[in-house]
């Protein structure tokens, strides 16, 4: 099990899903975990889960957890989060950019519109993926970088997916994840001399609340728990040779094989590849 005692982390978009799982994985490793999400009433509440519930689950693992309401579409609110962490902790060792608005409103007026051709896509979906996703990741990284530079260490993880490399049914989705991967690699170049790593991390098929609700449409045989992704982040943050991975795209299940951790059921799911994603 990874040990991140004394390390300070921030996971954005952690009220549910992969973000909650990452927070739990870091809590398992005894990191101090700050988490953010939009306050209740400002998000997509067709799926259960709140920031407070995540905080309680992390604390139950014996870790310190601080929940901060933040709409990551607002740069001023993002800045306030990093100001609070700097004032309270004086450092930041790990930023996980997970916040994402791209899966909201996949159906419009009763019609599933996610997989429509790009010319029939609602522009609001572009804004959800790029403003709540790529832009939010960039701004959080901007505020994290000076803190990490001052301590000459740190790790920024951007949650991405195979749609960056192959067509997966939505052109905007592919463009946003490709932008995320490029942001990770270019930030890595500029941060390298400060001993700060930047990577993209691809989960596999994850049993999030939305997926479980629609389980009849998914093959969950080789799926991952959200906390498995958190264990991948914790193992990566514990790696003394972390800088060798900076700038790369990493796959959570491949890290499990390398670092020797398992999912909650004791199994190691097979990694997705370009051909199987």
Comma- or semicolon-separated keywords:
single chain, Rossmann fold, 7-stranded parallel sheet, 9 strands, 41% helix, globular
Question: How are the SSEs placed, and which strands pair?
Answer:
Layout: E1 8-11, H1 17-28, E2 32-37, H2 51-60, E3 65-69, H3 75-89, E4 94-97, E5 107-108, E6 111-112, H4 123-151, E7 154-159, H5 171-191, E8 196-202, H6 209-213, H7 226-238, E9 249-251, H8 252-259
Parallel strand pairs: 1-2, 1-4, 2-3, 4-7, 7-8, 8-9
Antiparallel strand pairs: 5-6
Terminal CA distance reads: 28 Å
What level of helicity do the residues show? 40-55%
Uncertain runs are 43-47
| Side-by-side strand order of the widest sheet | 3-2-1-4-7-8-9
**Taking all residues together, what is the mean pLDDT?**
92
- The number of domains is 1
Which outline best applies? Answer: globular
Class computed from helices, strands and strand pairing: alpha/beta
In terms of DSSP E residues, the strand content is: 5-15%
Output the number of helix runs.
8
Tally of DSSP β-strands: 9
How does CATH name the architecture? 3-Layer(aba) Sandwich
